[in-house]
Design goal:
Blueprint lengths: L5 E4 L5 H12 L3 E6 L2 H15 L3 E5 L5 H15 L4 E4 L9 H23 L8 E6 L12 H18 L2 H4 L3 E8 L18 H11 L8 H9 L7 E5 L2 E4 L6
Parallel strand pairs: 1-2, 1-4, 2-3, 4-5, 5-6, 6-7
Antiparallel strand pairs: 7-8
Helix pairs in contact: 3-4, 4-5
The chain binds nicotinamide-adenine-dinucleotide and the ligand CCCCC[C@H](O)CC\C=C/C=C/C=C/[C@@H](O)[C@@H](O)CCCC(=O)O.
């Protein structure tokens, strides 16, 4: 299931993207890691390269820049000859610069999804595959201290679910899944920047309610989404209590 498969993971210099890339490499996949943060990307690349040799390549990429993202896909296909998995993981929290928040989280995911479909659809020369989009519990609940972030993550769910129901996509072997974790122990949840939230105290209260998961907590759900080839269109919440498929709300 993993051995010999080829993946693109955005925002993979650190945090969940780095963890996901490590999981794939450990299981024998080939991975193109990419991130806007060149210095952190270089460090992660060196670390992975020493363990996984030619199974890892790296390409700096800001997901708000279509040409840079296209280059990630081009390089991956040129190097490994195929593409089987796209993890649209790059994300930020920034309520002051809410435009950037939407552009990275939602538009970046849309760009990555479109490229993923272009490279993996059977009618376009691909072999089918999985597009795994990172949403959040903030894509399911309203979040009063990060409204733009919540909007971006709600958008990721709507976008992913919509394509997963399109016959041209389903019939050409591409499936799409959304992961929606609560708080995970990465730099994202650090209260280190006033521009992130509109009310750090409000954020703190919700973090206390949900607790903080280790990145390890997310791995089995990530692995299962890849292994379960029947899984298309799922939106999966992940909290300390476990993982649950969120049913479609009916009007
Ligand atoms: N940590 C959490 O509590 C949590 C919970 C739910 C969902 N998520 C989502 O998981 C994903 C990963 O977040 P994380 O917790 O690992 O955060 P993180 O801040 O540790 O990592 C995010 C990575 O994305 C990169 N990035 C930021 N802007 C980018 C851009 N324009 N182009 C390319 N890369 C960019 C960063 O440089 C960083 O390496 C995000 O989509 C986030 O919204 C995180
Ligand atoms: C502060 C860090 C910002 C990063 C956000 C991460 O993506 C994680 C967001 C995770 C969960 C947020 C949930 C918020 C829910 C509340 O606003 C509330 O509505 C939930 C109420 C649920 C209940 O009462 O059962």
């Amino acid at each position: 299931m993993f051995s010999g498969r080829v993946a693109v993971v955005t925002g993979s210099a650190q945090g969940l993207g780095k963890v996901f890339s490590g999981v794939l490499l450990e299981r024998g996949s080939k991975v193109c890691i990419s991130d806007v943060n060149q210095s952190e990307l270089e460090k992660t690349y060196k670390e992975f390269k020493s363990k996984y040799a030619e199974n890892v390549i790296s390409q700096q990429c800001d997901v708000t820049d279509s040409e840079q993202l296209k280059e990630v896909f081009r390089k991956t296909k040129d190097t490994y000859g195929q593409l089987d998995l796209v993890v649209n993981n790059a994300g930020i929290v920034n309520e002051k610069n809410w435009q950037q928040c939407i552009d990275v989280n939602l538009n970046g995911t849309i760009r990555g999804t479109m490229l993923g479909m272009e490279y993996m659809r059977k009618d376009k020369g691909g072999k089918g595959g999985l597009i795994l989009n990172m949403s959040s519990l903030a894509g399911i609940f309203p979040v009063n201290y990060t409204p733009a972030y919540a909007a971006s993550k709600h958008g990721v769910i709507g976008y992913t679910r919509s394509w997963s129901m399109h016959p041209d996509v389903v019939n050409n072997g591409v499936r799409l899944v959304c992961l929606c974790p609560a708080f995970v122990d990465t730099d994202m949840i650090k209260m280190d920047d006033d521009s992130k939230f509109v009310g750090t105290d409000l954020a703190q209260q919700v973090i206390e309610k949900f607790g903080i998961m280790s990145t390890d907590h997310i791995i089995p759900v990530f692995v299962n989404a890849i292994e379960d080839e029947e899984n298309n269109g799922s939106v999966i919440s992940i909290t300390l209590k476990g993982a649950n498929k969120i049913p479609l709300p009916m009007p």
